[in-house]
Design goal:
Layout (H helix, E strand, L loop, with lengths): L9 E4 L5 E4 L5 H13 L1 E7 L5 H12 L3 E6 L2 E7 L11 E2 L4 H12 L4 E5 L10 H9 L3 E6 L3 E7 L8 E3 L5 H11 L5 E6 L6 H8 L4 E6 L2 E7 L8 E3 L4 H13 L4 E8 L6 H8 L3 E10 L2 E9 L7 E2 L11 H10 L1 E6 L12 H11 L4 E4 L2 E7 L8 E2 L5 H13 L4 E3 L12 H8 L2 E2 L1
Parallel strand pairs: 2-15, 3-14, 6-7, 10-11, 18-19, 22-23
Antiparallel strand pairs: 1-23, 1-24, 3-5, 4-5, 7-9, 8-9, 11-13, 12-13, 15-17, 16-17, 19-21, 20-21
């Protein structure tokens, strides 16, 4: 598998129609969780379709450091022999998560619920990301933060507790990472962990905990969810099939919509309702997307999608849709640039604390491509150009893989090629992006 070298500028060039079939890589969220629950279960967990990206592989190394035995059996095929709940080992060195915010925050929950201490660290981008809102509830459960950088950032030395306190906790924002960290810590609690979120966020952790044998219940609570977990279950080692990642599929989907005469089939994509906000938004914009061959993989809904070039129109995207498409706003902004009329995306405060300040990064990249964009509070307004996007600029990525892939896709349909300053970080989530898109007819230089 080819990984682009460090500091690798790359351009997306105006291309002919994109045609063919593409199966995106395995879902990153589920890949992280499959490894982590494999660590906490006793016995052998078999994983098929694991995303072999830098982010996920860092989580795998952290699981090894905490006592799991992990073996690669072939492309995307991995075995994990778990240490078992309550039986983790203290790592001998820092846990390096590279750029993986998800892996870092979820593993903080694991460590917090066990009597071990671990130092969490990563690359320059990860060290800028706030961790305090994950750490605060873990401290309530009995964990101790022994060291941290200013503002609750990595490197962080976290000491867990062998008997985490069961708590009732309401998350300040809809965040699957906060929720998952609390639930993973609560697994080793002698009581019940109750969690309320203001809006429903990704529910992969709840589904996978139940799949591995935990007693967990989730029900509507106002506009959000009320989740209850019984501590100290007997987690069963299981077989997991990882479906294709909708966040990665978003790039070829939008590329097919904006490149004239394109007709692309996306295979095996997860269609969990809490991950399909992008599809809903694109359909409202007039996208020609057909759902085919619905099925199931790893306890999640899946389907093939047929996507054809479409004349898009600007829309108003409500703030309450953000949890179901939080990673897809960069590529939605590209679709908006090619639409007729303005698109307003509301309530994007969470984009300020991703791998970069994505809100500012999207706006800067659009302006470099000749597209008018403005930030008003937490809203992003893109003035669509009805398919006529100049391109020709350089989008700074700030070490953000989704910014990089989004502006490379813009270049495929613009009048002139669009460059990004560094494509190396694409390997954190979609290592085969360039190769896969090239097979469909995309051009890069």
């Amino acid at each position: 598998m080819k990984v682009l070298p460090q500091s690798a500028p790359l351009s997306g060039e105006p291309s002919g129609p994109l045609r063919g079939r593409l199966r995106p890589p395995g879902d990153k969220s589920i890949s992280h969780r499959a490894l982590i629950l494999g660590l906490l279960a006793v016995g052998r967990t078999e994983i098929e379709g694991l995303l072999e990206s830098a982010d996920v592989l860092h989580s795998g190394e952290a699981c090894r450091a905490l006592g799991a035995k992990i073996e690669r059996r072939g492309a995307g095929r991995w075995n994990v022999w778990g240490a078992g709940l309550g039986s983790l080992l203290a790592p001998r060195s820092s846990l390096d998560f590279g750029n993986a915010g998800t892996g870092t925050r979820l593993m903080m929950g694991v460590v917090a619920g066990h009597g071990v201490a671990a130092r969490f660290d990563g690359d320059q981008s990860l060290r800028k990301r706030p961790m305090r809102r994950v750490l605060d509830p873990l401290v309530e459960m009995g964990a101790e933060v022994l060291e941290e950088a200013a503002g609750g950032r990595c490197p962080i030395l976290l000491k867990g507790t062998p008997e985490p306190l069961p708590i009732d906790y309401e998350t300040p924002v809809a965040s699957a990472q906060i929720k998952s960290a609390i639930l993973l810590a609560g697994l080793n609690s002698p009581g019940r962990t109750l969690l309320i979120e203001p809006q429903a966020s990704r529910d992969h952790t709840e589904k996978m905990l139940a799949y591995f044998g935990a007693t967990i219940a989730s029900e509507p609570f106002g506009r959000g969810r009320r989740i209850q977990l019984e501590g100290r279950p007997e987690l069963r080692a299981s077989r997991i099939v990882v479906p294709a990642d909708p966040s990665s599929a978003a790039f070829p989907i939008v590329a097919a919509l904006i490149v004239p005469r394109s007709d692309v089939r996306i295979e095996g994509m997860m269609t969990n309702p809490l991950r399909t906000g992008l599809l809903q938004s694109l359909r409202e914009m007039g996208a020609d997307i057909d759902v085919l061959d619905e099925g199931e993989a790893g306890g999640e809904r899946t389907a093939d999608l047929r996507v054809k070039h479409s004349a898009l129109r600007g829309i108003d995207v409500p703030a309450e849709r953000a949890p179901s498409m939080i990673d897809e706003y960069p590529i939605l902004a590209i679709a908006a640039a090619f639409a007729k009329g303005a698109t307003r995306m509301r309530g994007l405060s969470e984009l300020r604390v991703k791998e970069s300040d994505r809100l500012a990064g999207i706006a800067a990249g659009l302006k470099a491509a000749g597209v008018a964009a403005a930030i008003e509070g937490d809203d992003l307004i893109v003035e669509g150009r009805g398919g006529d996007v100049p391109g020709g600029g350089l989008a700074p990525t700030h070490l953000d893989h989704r910014i990089a892939m989004s502006f490379l896709c813009l270049g495929l349909a613009a009048r002139r090629k669009m460059a990004v300053d560094d494509a190396s970080m694409i390997a954190t989530s979609f290592p085969s992006f360039v190769a896969d898109m090239t097979k469909l007819g995309a051009r890069f230089s």
